[in-house]
Amino acid sequence: MNAPQPRPLEQFFAQFLELQQRMRAATDLDSLGYAIVNEAQALFGYRHAALVIAGKVRNLTGISVIDANAPFVAFVERAARHQPAEGGPRRIDPVELDGQTQADWQTLSAGAVVWLPFNDPQGEPFGGLWIAREQAWSDAELTLLGQLADCQAHAWWALQPKRPWRLRWPRRRLLMIGAAVLAMLFLLPVRQSVLAPAEVVPLDGQVVAAPLDGVIARFVVQPNQPVRSGDVLLRFEDTSLRAQADVAERSLQVAEAELRASSQRAFSDTDASARIDLLAARVEQKRAERDHARELLSRSEVRAERDGIAVFADAQRWTGRPVQTGERLMEIADPNHAQLRIDLAVGDVLAFEPDAEVALFLDSDPLTRHAASLSRQAYEAQPRPGGELAYRFDASFAQAPPRIGLRGTAKLYGPRGPLALYLLRRPLAALRQTVGL
């Protein structure tokens, strides 16, 4: 004989009991949370479910990673706060929620929603389950969901880390002890310090400026390349300068020829004798113009005046660019003579002592500490490229300096003070500026 086929109702309850068994068999909170929001979807046909633990969404149907800033997550957490702490499963009426939550409901969730509270063994709520679908929930389904929620809450509480041991002291005494310990911590003297961006810059370097107005043809040296005195650093476009020098040379030759011709005719021609002084002055003028053109042509090649390394950012940034006389192009510096430049924001300035301790941590090597001491403090704050005001501080290295051009973070140490001042200095300064005290 054929075995009797199970009826649909029997199949439903068999699946329901199997689902409860899988909840209790979960070995960790991640797998349990996934099962809570996904496993019952086939039985009850809901669109989505959200598991809320301690006011925060822990799991969502069909989603493995929760985005805490997602609109649906914020909507569910806000709606869960409006649910009563006591009672069993209940249908949620939109009129119980605030206006913003009701508006989000229309676009983010289904029309029929059930809230299943999760309670610990003492009856205290610690979370709940938000289940939504388009069809209305029947009383029988609500009863089954209540049984399922009890099983899920029990399984979650069984895996929940145990509460820490607490002293069996009165609450008032615990508060007094905590306040005393906190006050002692706030009065603990610590060394004040601030962080600021820093850069290794040359010390007493020679600035190479543009000797004339023109266009840079090319840089002969590369950044951080060693150079010696007399080496060519860069060349300007000299086509027009050579043409000017050639024209000035020819003009001088013409003026000298006119002077010689007038000098020869001066013995017989009184007019030629009278023009000799004028022509001689013109020759001197043309000679000065020629010398000036030659001087400009010689300046088209910029040479190093001392030994060192060429410090500049990028040659391609200057090539083909017109510059004016006196514009800074690069710096020739001794790699063994460098200092630390620190740009400290106005709100971070402390009462630093002369030779205050400074520690540099380079971006390229953040685990190595470079010791330095404060050597100069700017009197006036200057705007930084970002727009904020900052004071410039210079520090000298205790040992061999890092490579010029490296950047990092400098830690400047100030006087000692209570821990409360170290933690609340910025908030107190902002409060004082706000209230005007």
UniProtKB/TrEMBL annotation:
Keyword terms, alphabetized: Coiled coil
Annotated source species: Pseudomonas abyssi
PANTHER family (UniProt xref): BLL5650 PROTEIN (PTHR32347:SF23), EFFLUX SYSTEM COMPONENT YKNX-RELATED (PTHR32347)
Domain of life per record: Bacteria
Subcellular location: Cell envelope
Annotated protein name in UniProt: Multidrug transporter
Residue runs in coiled coils: 245-296
Location, primary (coarse class): other
SUPFAM superfamilies assigned: GAF domain-like, HlyD-like secretion proteins
GO cellular component: cell envelope
